[in-house]
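Input chain follows. Return structure tokens only.
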Amino acid sequence: MSTLILMLIAALFFNSAIYADGDGNIDIGGGGMGSGTGQNYWNTNEEGVRVTVIRATDQLPVTTSIDFTNRSLSNSLIHFGKVSKIQYRNGTQLQPSTAPYTYVQPSEPIPYIIKSERAQPSLEEIKQYFCSEYMAKRIASATGIDYDSLISGNYKLLLEPIAYITFQGVKMAMTAHEAALYDQILSGGLRSKMVSLTHQNLPLSLFLETPDLGFPAWDGPATSRVSNHQIISSLGLGIVRFKDSPTTPPSAETNLQYRTDTDVITSVHLSTGTQINPNAPASVTFNIMGSSYTVTNIVIPAGDSQVVWVKWRTPSNPQNVTIHISASSGWLSENTILISIVDLNQNPPPDPKATDQNPGYAPTSIPSYANRTSASWGIWSASWHGYWVWVANWQWYTTGKNTGYWQDNGHWRDDGWWEYTRISYIATFSAAQSLLPDPKSPSLSSNQMKSGYGIEINTTTVLSSNAPSSHITGAQHVVSYFPEFAYQKYWRLHDIKSSGYSASFWLKPNVYSTYQSHVHFTPIWFPDGPYTPLTRILDTWTPDGMLTIQLQNSITISGNLFSDWHIAPQNPK
């Protein structure tokens, strides 16, 4: 047995070590499965594991995800592509695919992952398998990454359980995260048919013991049904760390960043094991900067959750704020949120000079920020479904010797129940941008200019939603970064030309412009070729978080403004 194997086994039996070769940050749960129907069912061991290699420094996938399974599967089953939980978190949308389904069958069988009446998974067997040298080499081979690089400590393995189910008569493959997203699209249609699998045993088959890769440890029940939000945020994943790859220290707090003078939405999720009904509705209170905001009349069916939020405006001064949240019933996803409120208008570029030089300039790659262009959320309501039953109370009435009669003095009783309906909301966000030479400059064309002159950046946005205004905000901030500053160090904010759900923006007036034009001056020394600013649109808020888009257009630099200068000879006297 190699040194690596010995170290792996040590990690399994001494789980207190934070850094170890092949340390498995994995725990398991689940419960009874019940029975399915001819159109909707799952069989024991119809399962697999999606493995994604994640770079530890920036928490991004470096290879295409690989699905491992013991089963021999038809390549015609319906699936959602090879998308990891991190990619969904970063904004990738769920997209059904009919492309051939590809997978890898390891020679050493994978242990049971999903609990059922005939399968009792072992946490130690799962850890031992996925933390083994054999599996590390198998993953390295399947992904094309060098084995020594894989175990160097620079990467982590993200594991996600997959179920191969028959739903509405169609064979499908889905991770726990995908099942939750699919159920949201179907407005609970998947949960209503296969709740024991998709909302219990599949998501609870793997979850984290300690926070890592931006995902929290799961401290909820391990044998109860869970909600879509709980699955998306916390369940259906395990992480394998090699050597000294870093992990996130445990914390019960969430950290957010807001901008000054901005309408924002702060949200949490309220979950419950037993139903919360209109006879005893829940309330959630947010304490923010000395003020209390209480959301009342919250109802939630048993074993589910609901997003709860407050819409408020941040102060005009940068500062740190601690928000405390409490609930009258159920449990909250967060009780404390730490907010950093920043002023973006602190670092505009310096005054450009005709004498500026930068002989050592080398173009840098354009940063890629995560786009998020859609959000979905919902609110529960409840109505009483009456079901009247007669409660008999037979009594004997004597009318004479040895005579009498029975009479039923019973009463009607309502043995009804609460019926819950989820009202679903969605929001989609789009944006466009134009990049043009300053109209006051002698530009060559609308897409070509000389360096040293100004450019205009105009941005339009559209937010579409079926939600009322208390649920959403339009875009509120736009900020542009520039290649001469390597897309950092200095930036320019935009002013709002028109606000609302179809907001438009242009650059703030340039204090160094003679005409106070809404422009950015390109540096005189910028070399010929494409000039590409980067623009981020921020603060389009929903209860499901902020929507944001990155835009970048290019304009071609050809020559510089000195070629437009003419110095006349001195007039002789």
